[in-house]
């Protein structure tokens, strides 16, 4: 039985497109429902959270998630990924190395930020290997009625930032943590500040002035907000 976006606690952004703000780290996940496939964008911060999202997505779409796009390799966006065991996993080229070779660092960051060590251990042990890697752009058909454009827009927030553009009325751009609304954008040791403003320029070029931009944390914003954040980052990091 399907439910409405509101009944599931999700925010409807366009026909067949919605997002949910998760508790804890205020991380956003997205869902795009097509006639032929269901795309989840990011997976939450634990296996239990991923399982809840899987159940909610099935209730919203009326069928299971078949594709999962990971916007970047931070624990609050990827630790629920193993809950989508039957989905094809997509990410920016290079993200697979982080999810395989840097698991100890991912675990350490998660625990340092408040995730229980046992929960982090379970998620790290189960992390899937993204087999569909995007080096530039990839069009993802979701049925005759819909497609999504996966774009490797980084580096910026990390070295492996993937945006998801869903054309429509309005166009919806899932930005990952390249854009944050509920706080200042976080630049950790894996950020590439010198390229971050250019990544936001590319997002604006992809979505245009009338798109809805979905940040990795916080409320949905418009092009003006993204442009202002781009300028603030350029000033903050001394980028022309």
Write the layout of secondary structure elements.
Elements: H1 5-8, E1 11-14, E2 17-21, E3 28-33, E4 38-41, H2 47-61, E5 67-69, H3 75-78, E6 88-92, H4 95-101, H5 103-112, H6 117-126, E7 132-134, E8 137-141, E9 147-152, E10 162-166, E11 172-180, H7 196-207, E12 212-217, H8 223-237
Parallel strand pairs: 4-5, 5-6, 6-7, 11-12
Antiparallel strand pairs: 1-2, 2-3, 3-4, 8-9, 9-10, 10-11
Helix pairs in contact: 5-6, 7-8
Low-confidence stretches: none
Instruction: Specify the biggest β-sheet.
Output: 7 strands, mixed
Residue share in helices? 25-40%
Instruction: Determine the mean pLDDT.
Output: 97
How much is the radius of gyration in Å?
16 Å
The CA-CA distance between the termini, in Å, is: 52 Å
Order of helices and strands: HEEEEHEHEHHHEEEEEHEH
Extended strand count:
12
Structural class: alpha/beta
Strand content: 25-35%
From the spread of the alpha carbons, the general shape counts as: globular
Determine the number of helices (DSSP H or I, runs of at least 4 residues): 8
Q: Strand order within the widest sheet?
A: 1-2-3-4-5-6-7
Account of the 3D structure:
- This protein is α/β, with parallel strands linked by helices and 240 residues long.
- 32% of the residues lie in helices and 25% in strands.
- It contains eight helices and twelve strands.
- The strands form two sheets. Strands 1-2-3-4-5-6-7 form a seven-stranded mixed sheet, with no helix packed on it. It has a five-stranded mixed sheet with strand order 8-9-10-11-12, covered by helices on one side.
- A hairpin with a 6-residue loop joins strand 2 (17-21) and strand 3 (28-33).
- Helix 5 (103-112) runs antiparallel to helix 6 and helix 7 packs antiparallel against helix 8 (223-237).
- The radius of gyration is 16 Å and the shape is globular.
- 50% of the residues are buried.
- The model has no long low-confidence stretch (mean pLDDT 97).
């Amino acid at each position: 039985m399907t439910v409405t976006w509101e009944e599931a606690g999700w925010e409807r952004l366009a026909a067949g497109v919605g997002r949910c703000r998760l508790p804890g780290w205020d991380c956003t996940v997205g869902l795009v429902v097509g006639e032929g496939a269901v795309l989840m964008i990011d997976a939450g911060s634990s296996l239990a959270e991923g399982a809840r999202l899987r159940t909610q997505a099935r209730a919203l779409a009326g069928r299971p998630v078949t594709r999962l796009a990971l916007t970047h390799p931070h624990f609050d966006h990827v630790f629920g990924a193993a809950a989508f065991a039957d989905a094809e996993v997509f990410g920016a080229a290079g993200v697979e190395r982080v999810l395989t070779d840097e698991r100890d660092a991912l675990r350490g960051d998660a625990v340092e930020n408040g995730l229980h060590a046992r929960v982090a251990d379970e998620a790290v042990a189960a992390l899937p290997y993204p087999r569909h890697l995007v080096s530039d752009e990839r069009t993802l058909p979701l049925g005759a009625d819909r497609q999504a454009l996966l774009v490797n827009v980084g580096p910026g927030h990390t070295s492996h930032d993937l945006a998801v553009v869903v054309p429509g009325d309005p166009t919806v751009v899932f930005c990952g943590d390249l854009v944050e609304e509920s706080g200042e954008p976080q630049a950790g040791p894996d950020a590439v500040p010198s390229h971050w403003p250019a990544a936001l320029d590319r997002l604006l070029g992809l979505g245009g002035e009338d798109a809805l931009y979905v940040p990795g944390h916080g409320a949905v914003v418009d092009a003006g907000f993204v442009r202002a954040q781009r300028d603030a980052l350029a000033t903050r990091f001394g980028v022309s």
